[in-house]
Amino acid sequence: MRKILSLIVGLFLLGNVLGQEKEADTSWKINGDINVMFSQTTFSNWASGGENSLTINGFFNYYAGYFKGKNKWENMLNLAYGQTKTGDQGYRKNEDKIDFLSTYGYKASEHWFYSANLSFKSQFAEGFDYHDDVDSLKPEKISNFMAPGYLSAGLGMEFRPYDYMSFYLSPVTARWIFVTDQDLADAGAFGVEPAEYNDDGMKIKDGETLRQEFGAYFRFIFSKEIIKNVSFSTKLELFSDYLENPQNIDVNWDNMLDLKVNDWISAKAGLQLVYDDNTPVTDKDGKIGPRTQLKQLLSVGLTYKFSN
Known about the structure:
This protein is mainly beta.
């Protein structure tokens, strides 16, 4: 937790330095924010029962855009990490995200750009399934840093009708899925080829740590203050792999509503929907297969915004 907070603070300081360096150059537009959100419930002699809980989440959002002539280059970095503690349980991860996006565009007409896109997604720390409904099972590691890690690059066109709205379509996008944790790679997690074993159960070949895909990618971004002190942002990403089951489209839809109380206090409400055909999920009935994944967030805390 300390390492993550140190990283966020370091990036914040870097953001300020970059903002100051580019302040004299009006071609650069830089802004961002840091959020530390809290939630706590405490009981003492409470007749109705309940368990104490504490949740801490940290968010770092950074944007740097360069606009000059017909050229534009936009970069967005979104980091998040959080832990929660309920009752006598230890701290458990409840939020973990590394999301970087870089897009270069050359103006083709008033609202259209020839574009090149580069994106990277992963997480900071290990993730576990704690099997709380089965006392005899130990926590099962199901993810880690760069397990998975997603790197994609593509060429396409971007339609930008407004500064706060963007549509991007790439019919030629390469995507690499990294699973650098060998235990997860051996299990064939996130679509990589699993390890091979002989009849005695001895491993004779390690699982692959890389999966390559090639397909079509679509992205929609909207970010705007919709009413005073209330901002809404959404990013929808769709990917179809030409090489395997192109009809099964991967979906990543991230939504965030920011409510400003004053210059230092804000509230966040978030909803993320994910569907990945290469990521099997075990449901409550024990069935394994691709599933629509949902994550919700509601928290209040401290916010600091910066811009050039």
